[in-house]
Structure formats: C-alpha cells, structure tokens
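Slide 14.
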Amino acid sequence: MEPIALAIIILLLLALVCLVMYFSYLQQNSKLDEINARLSKLQPYPSRRRDSKIIRQQRAASGDHMMLLEAALQNSQREDLTPEELQAIDAARDTFKVCADELKNDGEWMGVPFDLEWFELLERLPIVKRLYRASEFSVMGESTLVEEVPIAIANQKKPD
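Slide 15: predicted structure.
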C-alpha cells in the first residue's frame, strides 16, 4: 500500500471520529437543555434581593421629601394640605412601608434610630401629621355620613 493512500485512510478515520464526537456533543447538549428547562419549571429562579443600602437610600429620599414639606408648611403657616401634597404623603407612606417590609424580610432591619417605621417618622413631623390626619378625618367623616344616612333610615321603626 502506498503511503499516500494510508494517509488518506487515516485522515478519513480521524474525520469520522471527529464527526461522531461532534454529533455526540450536540445530542448531549440538547439533553442538557431539556433537563435545564424541566428544572426551571420545577424551581423558578429566586427573586433578586435589593441591597439594604439601596433600600435605605430610597427610604431616606422619601423621608427627605417629608422633611421639606414640614419646613414649607412651617414657613407658610398654612392650615391645610393640597391634593398634590396629600398624594406625596401617601406615596412616602407606601415607600416607607415597602422598604421596612423588605428590610425585615431580608433580616437587615436595625430598628430605631437607624430604621424608622412610617408612624415613627410621622411623630417627628408634627405639622404634617396634624394636617394629614385632619384631612383624612374630614374625608372619613364625609364618607361615614353618607353611609350612615341610609342605615339610619332603614333602622327607623315605622309607626303602626
């Protein structure tokens, strides 16, 4: 046998071995993808926790807005809150509650004086607290009156 024919046969055998290895790799890779898909259906990836520093920064920014509102109310001597200010207070309350819940769930809650609940912040803002509660009570009072009128009429005894 000639050396050229022998070299061609060896190259063909090597090419065949490489081809078999390549298709074996593709088959194993597809099986691995199927297994990963099944596992991800069984156990979804856990949600990523936010860093406690970021949570505290978000809460601090919300608290700063409330401090600025307190200062503005103190300087203007107003006795009521605008609808925009009420919305800002509600947004700050929601932010404070979400941040406190996240810190507590993550085990990062340090408590007073480092971490404040919403009511603890509100205690430090007496003007905002007074005006916010007054506006909430006025809204509750109006809705209570509307709800009580039909009940009072229904509860009245009819004369015989």
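Speaker note: The mean pLDDT is 81.
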